[in-house]
Write a structure and sequence with these properties.
The structure is a single chain. The protein has 228 residues and is mainly alpha-helical. The protein has 7 helices and 2 strands. A two-stranded antiparallel sheet has the order 1-2. α4 runs antiparallel to α7 and α5 packs across α7. The longest helix has 48 residues. The radius of gyration is 25 Å and the shape is rod-shaped. The N and C termini lie close together (11 Å). 24% of the residues are buried.
Length: 228
């Protein structure tokens, strides 16, 4: 019994795309890791880049196993590929459920991390610079309680230049009244929605990959039995 070339090459091209996606995830993750222009405040509050690097490497390895297993019709590689996809599928499913039901806990964790930086005036100059950049971007001031996180010296990054934003008067000047913790948590929720969507898409692709690999594995087994 001959192995179906259609399934064989479908699995090969699927894994080639899978491997390329792993390369993209790895490349983007490394860029985010070493990017000197990214905010340390947001980066420290939204961990996950290291996890993305690990996921990128794992996807690349699985894609390689799947490509080789399909072209060489190697049952061992196909089984390793199937088990690897199954494990990642289970992890993605668990992570998606935890991410969906644990959103409030993530918000509390971020606020706790940001609260460790208060009072802001006592932080190193580099940290203050990052906070001020965050304030300009998010049109906010302070991290937890607003302008009072800075004490008596509120920086110019808090100056309210947007008439549509919530503002207050401190020391005779108009500044943003909204703490930046709200901006960071809103950013987290948006990123979480995108991440869950991507995870769902990858999970669907993994289901097709597992089906293709198992069908090809069974066909190879039948072909070996018929020729024995």
């Amino acid at each position: 019994m001959a192995v179906s070339k259609c399934i064989k090459y479908c699995l090969f091209f699927f894994n080639l795309l899978f491997w390329i996606s792993g390369c993209i995830i790895l490349g983007v993750s490394i860029y985010l890791k070493v990017d000197k222009d990214s905010s340390k405040i947001v980066g420290g509050s939204l961990p996950g880049v290291d996890l993305l690097i690990a996921i990128g490497v794992i996807i690349m390895v699985l894609g390689f196993l799947g490509c080789c297993g399909a072209i060489k019709e190697n049952k061992c590689m196909l089984m390793l590929f199937f088990i690897g996809l199954l494990l990642i599928f289970i992890l993605l499913l668990a992570a998606g459920i935890l991410g969906a039901v644990g959103e409030d806990k993530s918000t509390d964790f971020i606020k706790e991390q940001l609260n460790n930086l208060v009072p802001l005036a006592d932080q190193p100059e580099s940290t203050q610079t990052d906070i001020q950049a965050l304030e300009v971007e998010g049109k906010c001031c302070g991290l937890i309680k607003g302008p009072e996180d800075w004490g008596s010296q509120v920086p110019s990054s808090c100056n309210c230049n947007d008439t549509t934003a919530a503002c207050t008067t401190v020391g005779g000047k108009k500044v943003y009244s909204t703490p930046c913790a709200e901006f960071v948590t809103t950013l987290l929720k948006k990123n979480l929605t995108v991440a869950l969507g991507i995870a769902f898409g990858i999970a669907v692709l993994m289901l097709f990959g597992m089906i293709f690999s198992m069908v090809l594995y069974c066909q190879i087994g039948k072909a070996e039995t018929s020729t024995a």
